[in-house]
Amino acid sequence: MKKGRLGLLLAVLLAASAVLSGCGKDSGDKKHVVIGEVTRSLFYAPQYVAIEKGFFDEEGLDIELTTTPGGDKTMTALLSGSIDVALVGSETSIYVHQQGADDPVINFAQLTQTDGTFLVAREKIDSFDWTELKGSVFLGQRKGGMPQMAGEFAMKKNGINPATDLEMIQNIDFANIAAAFSSGTGDYVQLFEPTASIFEKEGRGYVAASFGVESGHLPYTVFMAKQSYIDKNSEYIQAFTNAVYKAQKWVAEHNAEEIADVVIPYFENVDRDRLISSIDRYKSQGSFADNPVVDTEEWDNLLDVMTEAGELADRAEHGELVNTSFAEAAIAESGK
Q: In which family does this protein belong, per the annotation (predicted)?
């Protein structure tokens, strides 16, 4: 496996991390579950809806949400037992698998099904053509991370070789990428919402294209847990998945304005109009998964993207790291 994806600490944790069945105390008759989300983004609106609309509570779960910026940090938190469930890209579970984990990380409920980033240009471009990336300086994401791989996949699809046609900067920490672009680094950057919309409003950048549209359906952000945790807490994993599906249906049935009003507590520094435009972007391109099933076609597309990026040592087949039984049961229970 190539170095630099999850770091030496991850390898140590794989060897040292014993079976930690939970990291919080149960609250009364409710099961306490700590979720670590890879970033705070409107891309994860259904998760915030599940919390705010009381869907987790209805399922007997007491949710604690923490943000662990970056896939490497999120996976490290999961393996060490400081979180119970990770909301992160499926590629991280594959990297753990490639390191020979005795306690594999299992994808059990999908939240998003496309890349969630947008190509943001420093100058406004009325009619963007991908050839305009040639000779530019591109402020990219972490090597081996899903945003970066999906971004490179989209570039290659549109005739751009990211290794030779532009200068790629990848030495900036995930949490500082937006600030680096704002301070003058790069001609283009890859950003999630609502940051992309905020940049447009403030004149710091302009959305030129959607990497989600270009890269197709992927198990982009998925709820996952260690196999040992799932084995010991299958009842609560089912309850968790039921709540996720309730939220997915609610999001599908409501418009961007209604969704914004529910999730606004998680984005106190973002005005409502920006929230609405960001959510509308994600809804219009089908980024929010309709149900929590990680299907084989999406998984195979992920493996193809990773192979194209040179990040896949061996193909981890769908059945090895994906458990669809909880999602299928959630759908069956709802009657839809």
A: Belongs to the bacterial solute-binding protein SsuA/TauA family.
Question: Taking residues 16-30, what's their average pLDDT?
Answer: 55
Name beta bridge partners: 167.
Answer: 137
Q: Is the pLDDT of residue 90 over 90?
A: yes
Q: How many CA atoms, within 13 angstroms, populate the side-chain half-sphere of residue 209?
A: 19
46, HSE (Cβ side, Cα atoms, 13 Å): 32
- How high is the mean pLDDT of the chain? 91
CATH number, domain of 171, equals 3.40.190.10
- Please identify which residue in the block is written with the tokens 């009364």: 28
Asked if residue 279 and residue 222 are part of one domain, the reply reads yes
Q: 108 and 121: one domain?
A: no
Residue type, 293: V
How many domains is the chain built from? Answer: 2
> Environment class of residue 73 by beta-carbon count within 10 Å: exposed (0-12), middle (13-18) or buried (19+)?
buried
Instruction: Return the pLDDT at 3.
Output: 41
Residue 141 is predicted with a pLDDT of 87
Q: What radius of gyration do the chain's Cα atoms show? A: 19
Query: Residues 245-277, buried b or exposed e (16+ Cβ, 10 A)?
Result: bbbbbbbeebebeebbebbeebbeebeeebbbb
Confidence category of residue 22, pLDDT binned at 50, 70, 90:
very low
Q: Are residues 200 and 222 in the same domain?
A: no
Letter for the amino acid at 258?
E
- Tell me what pLDDT residue 336 has: 60
CA quadruple 240, 243, 245, 248: dihedral sign: negative
Query: What is the H or E stretch that residue 179 is in?
Result: helix 177-182
3-state secondary structure of 134: coil
Confidence class for position 199, pLDDT limits 50, 70, 90: very high
CA pair distance 83, 194, nearest whole angstrom: 25
